[in-house]
Amino acid sequence: MARLAAESLDVLRQMALEGNPNSASDAGVGAILCKAAVQGAALNVRTNLSGLKDASFAESTREEIERLLKDSSEKADEISAIVEEKL
Question: Thinking of the domain 2-86, which architecture would CATH place it in?
């Protein structure tokens, strides 16, 4: 879920930049929701990591979710700025 929501931010960025100006706010709302989806998925992942026996897999998963959190936050903020400029 976190990966899919994070990837969706790329589409929303293009929508905010090149889409119909009247749908810019839709891109902004989508960015907010995708960021929240990544955060929610991260909470679930972190909750379940402690129960994993494969420490290497747990660590690589922890690193990936941290990267997804950082990237999605930055992208969502960028989309919000683009949308604000168009309002």
Answer: Up-down Bundle (1.20)
